[in-house]
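Input record, target 12 of the design panel.
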């Protein structure tokens, strides 16, 4: 059973990477910490658990094995779908489409604001595509969070203009506060401005499946361009997305 303890330590170390490398803590980090502690408990305190469970230990073991196997199958299937959404549907360079860049944290002050590392990676990917496709329009999507100096859309547009993208090509959607609203409100901007109906979503790879699912629920054709997620963040965000996708499947949000 020691293998479970070693695996638990690995999970705990991966969970701490976003915190130690980027100062980021989110639901995925907490979920990984919980999973890591459970694995460590199984691996290093197996005999103590056997003693506490007594005659019911074998039943507990069978139930735990079934739950663990089902969770493993879920992880493999959902992660495969996420990877396909992230890297399997890149738009061709001659398609008529609208690039929709999903927002992320903006830092700084109202006078001196700038995109976070993750958001700047998304904007770099969007700028590269827009430069190669001068006919494509763009919607930058994101409102103002509680700890943000300005709406994300403003910082995003400013960044793209600094990268040489003409301001007239960039439409702002500045009301959304989550991914579902990003897609819904961006669709409204596209319809209002009569932009091409195929949506090319620019976000991190782990985020693509959920974003594209929202777009399909809105009746939109959607493909993706995945940004280069900063080192140390991918694993914990994939874990967060597992549970966000469960919520989407169960509650539709």
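The sequence produced for target 12 reads:
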């Amino acid at each position: 059973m020691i293998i479970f303890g070693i695996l638990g330590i690995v999970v705990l170390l991966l969970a701490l990477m976003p915190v130690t490398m980027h100062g980021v803590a989110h639901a995925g980090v907490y979920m990984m910490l919980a999973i890591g502690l459970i694995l460590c408990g199984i691996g290093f305190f197996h005999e103590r658990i056997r003693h506490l469970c007594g005659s019911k230990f074998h039943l507990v073991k069978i139930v735990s094995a079934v739950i663990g196997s089902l969770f493993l199958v879920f992880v493999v299937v959902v992660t495969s779908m996420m990877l396909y959404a992230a890297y399997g549907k890149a738009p061709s360079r001659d398609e008529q489409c609208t690039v929709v860049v999903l927002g992320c944290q903006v830092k700084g002050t109202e006078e001196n604001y700038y995109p976070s590392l993750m958001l700047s990676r998304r904007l770099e990917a969007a700028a590269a595509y827009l430069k190669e496709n001068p006919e494509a329009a763009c919607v930058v999507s994101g409102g103002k969070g509680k700890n943000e100096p300005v709406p994300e859309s403003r910082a995003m547009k400013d960044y793209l203009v600094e990268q040489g993208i003409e301001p007239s090509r960039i439409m702002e959607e500045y009301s959304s506060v989550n991914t579902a609203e990003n897609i819904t409100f961006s669709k409204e901007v596209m319809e209002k401005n009569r932009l091409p109906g195929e949506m090319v979503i620019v976000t991190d790879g782990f985020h693509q499946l959920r974003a594209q699912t929202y777009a399909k629920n809105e009746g939109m054709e959607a493909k993706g361009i995945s940004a280069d997620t900063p080192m140390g963040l991918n694993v914990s965000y994939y874990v967060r997305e597992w549970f966000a996708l469960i919520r989407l499947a169960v509650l539709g949000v």
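The radius of gyration is 21 Å.
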